[in-house]
Amino acid sequence: MISIFVIFIIILYIVRRPRIGENEPPLVPYKIPILGHTFSYLFNAKKFIKECKEQYGECFSIYVFGHVMTVVSRNSLSEVFRYPDNFDITSGLKEHLPLYLLFSYNGGMSNEGNKFHIKSVRKQISGKLDLNISVVQKYLSKGMEKWIGDCKHPKTVYDAWNMINNIIAIPIANVLVGEEAASHEDLVNSFGKFAFDLGPLLFIPPLLSFIHIKLHELFITLPLRFGWNPVSHHREVTMKRLRPVIEKRLKERNELGDNYKPYHDLLEYYMDQPNFDYTKPDNLPYHVENLLVIVFSSITTTSRAAADALYDLAGRPELLNELYEEALRIDRECNGSLTVADVKRMVKLDSFVKESLRHNGIITSLPHYVVKDYTFSSGLTVPKGRKLRLYFDDMLKAKESYGEDAEEFKPFRFLKANSPATLVERSYIVFGGGKHACPGRFFAVNEVKLFLHKLILKYKVSTQSGKIEDKIYFGPYSFPSKSGIVFENRV
């Protein structure tokens, strides 16, 4: 038995031994056969990738999970955004977040599906900020009352990300499906938990990929073969609450004709699509899964940004006081009813949010596959089929763009730079870049600012430790701290 295992390991080593062609980005040497750099990448990615870049330049390759992966930064990273036809982000994201394996009625991340999601977000969510802003602030206030409440006596909250996710889910649910459907607590709870329920399954390290990538897919889909699918419950809850709303709206359309006043939510947009016919057995589930893709990509990412910002704020009491002065002045001028123009005037808060996003801690992100052999301006060539990851942390801390103090957290760094948090720039790649830049960033940033604005007006916040808390890291990803944050009423 031992001899068979040894033979298997030898064969695996020979088969999986990386082969680097001439003029490719240099392969960083490794000491552990078969495993390569996997442990360093999983458990010390920040230090490991930084040292690789310092020693091998802005474009280098590492060997993780049985495959060669090229990490690109600075000029090479910018070229990935500039020439998107040469790099396939859809395949990269499908491998990283294989929603298509979990969705029964909708692949979730096909090229056409992605185009539809981008169009719907751009048109219905970010494109209707003026209409959505009143809905967001109304339900943010209700969410804060529910999940934070009265803090006459100091209240300590641990894992603030989870709490903020529950708050953020309420206004987003109202924007997506309207106030009638979102009045149901089970629907809002489902939206809030959706990404967290899928997360453990989608973020399992692909250890079986050392043998073959398909084995990892087989492993994470095993529960589906026994009838368990985390999407199913959320799909059923959503259909249950949307069906009567759809029927009511269709009845209104028939009775009112040209006098029908369309709702401004995403559900109405789906109902206007030529392929919408909820009476067909698979049609409503298909559109609901479209909706769940938006839920997955919006609520958790927005709440994560808000949680990061809250921890950044709570550890800096002098900053909290300065932002409170701005918030109080704007609140008085608009009598507590904010417009998009009022949110835009929160220049100090905007600069702080942008700096918090710049320090999000993500090391590498946005996997791409090379469509055909591509030679960067540096002269290095990446072959067709090679997986790339973008070195976000390096780009966001570039001294050429942010000065010698680029590593420092300076909340008002952008105050006089005419550079709002939504602006995609060469070095500010939090929301991606080029034509694939996140279309929901306008809505997300405004919601984060509104959340912080209302929180600053209502509460004093501090970290329980009295220190600036560090993020939690797993592989190249960072997550908000779970340390305690103390809330106390201002008055």
| Tally of helical segments | 20
Placed side by side, the strands forming the largest sheet appear as 1-2-8-5-3
Which percent band covers the strand fraction?
5-15%
Rg to the nearest angstrom? 24 Å
Q: Structural class, please?
A: alpha+beta
Find the count of extended strands (DSSP E, 2+ residues). 12
**What's the CATH C level of the largest domain?**
Mainly Alpha
Helix content estimate: 40-55%
Characterize the largest beta sheet: strand count, sense, and whether it forms a barrel: 5 strands, mixed
- CATH-defined superfamily of the largest domain: Cytochrome P450
Count of structural domains? 2
CATH topology of the largest domain: Cytochrome p450
CATH architecture of the largest domain: Orthogonal Bundle
Shape: globular
Task: Describe the structure in your own words.
- With 491 residues, the protein is of the alpha+beta class.
- It has two domains: 1-96 and 365-400, Uridine Diphospho-n-acetylenolpyruvylglucosamine Reductase, domain 2; 97-359 and 409-489, Orthogonal Bundle (Cytochrome p450).
- It has 20 helices and twelve strands.
- A hairpin with a 2-residue loop joins strand 10 (472-474) and strand 11 (477-479).
- The model is unreliable at 8-15 (pLDDT under 50).
